[in-house]
Specification:
With about 300 residues, the chain is α/β, with parallel strands linked by helices. About 40% of the residues lie in helices and about 15% in strands. The chain is built from ten helices and nine strands. The protein has a five-stranded parallel β-sheet with strand order 2-1-3-4-5, sandwiched between helices. A four-stranded parallel β-sheet has the order 7-6-8-9, with helices on both faces.
Length: about 300
């Protein structure tokens, strides 16, 4: 078993622990009414997208998400939350340094022995969700669960659905697909982006992600026999039928959307195995991106 398989299988337990710790970390996390920006890189950026949409929809306050390198310094926020598994990512550390003394910052990380511990005003350490695989699975979903629980939106049903996603066989023919499209709505757009990233990272697969209503505005043209379209969350009316008419495989998201992401993680590992690839060590990737001054 690869590290990625072991880590993605442990997610139900990690979510349960993170949800229980949300109250403990309440002062470090955004409160109702705060104007908040969530930042990250790669997977963490997509989790930030999901949390920002969840928080604003819940009426907790204006919430934005940015890649750390694209943060708009001209905007004022009550708090900036940085998601960083490694605690060493250059863009995140530089942003936290630039915000010091003028904007309250919180970092959510997996490693307590890294520079981010001193860079942020508040730190939440989810070391029980740290990972050996380069490809992120459980840290990302555990951080999202922590923030989801802080919003009062996490339920035990999500954990039950995650176990179902881990135990249920993938749809027949899905692993052999030539192209994968993931769709979301609202907060699940970020999950769809992350699912597509997992396919690219772990399996070198042609994968795309879109808001579900945008899929018909061009992207559906790539859908045909031998491709797959996976909906994370409730699909727009009629979309499943349109995909089936193209000959493509439609995967309906019947579980909690975060549990659907677990299923997509399983798919990425399965496709990697079918292609003879190691999801723990993806091509050209490292656990953290640490840049020299000449690379910025």
């Amino acid at each position: 078993m690869t590290h990625a398989e072991d880590e993605l299988n442990s997610q139900p337990e990690c979510w349960t622990r993170a949800a229980a710790e949300a109250v403990t970390h309440a002062k470090a996390l955004p409160g109702p009414g705060e104007r908040v920006a969530l930042v990250g890189c790669g997977t963490s950026y997509f989790m930030a997208q999901a949390v920002a949409a969840l928080r604003e929809r819940a009426g907790q306050g204006e919430s934005d998400a940015f890649a750390a390198s694209e943060f708009p310094h001209g905007r004022a926020y009550d708090r900036v939350v940085a998601l960083t598994r490694s605690g060493t990512t250059t863009e995140v550390l530089e942003l936290l340094g630039a915000l010091r003394g003028r904007t309250r910052t919180t970092a959510i990380t997996a490693d307590p022995d890294t520079p981010v511990m001193a860079a942020a005003d508040d730190v939440v350490v989810l070391d029980f969700a740290d990972e050996k695989s380069v490809v992120q699975t459980r840290f990302a979903t555990t951080a999202l669960t922590l923030l989801r629980a802080r919003l009062g939106l996490h339920t035990d049903a999500a954990v039950t659905d995650a176990r179902t996603a881990l135990a249920t066989p993938l749809p027949q023919g899905l692993v052999g697909s030539a192209q994968f499209t993931f769709l979301g709505r609202g907060w699940t757009v970020g999950l769809a982006n992350e699912a597509a990233l997992k396919m690219r990272e772990a399996a070198l697969a042609w994968s795309e992600a879109y808001p579900a209503m945008e899929y018909r505005h061009g992207p559906i043209s790539v859908t045909t026999r031998g491709t797959a379209t996976w909906m994370l969350g409730e699909a727009p009316q009629g979309l499943a039928e349109q995909v089936r008419e193209t000959g493509g495989l439609w995967v309906a998201g019947g579980l909690d959307p975060l549990a659907e992401l677990v299923g997509a993680q399983r798919l990425a590992v399965a496709v990697a195995a079918a292609r003879g690839l190691d999801p723990d060590r993806p091509r050209h990737l490292t656990r953290s991106v640490i840049l020299d001054s000449d690379d910025r």
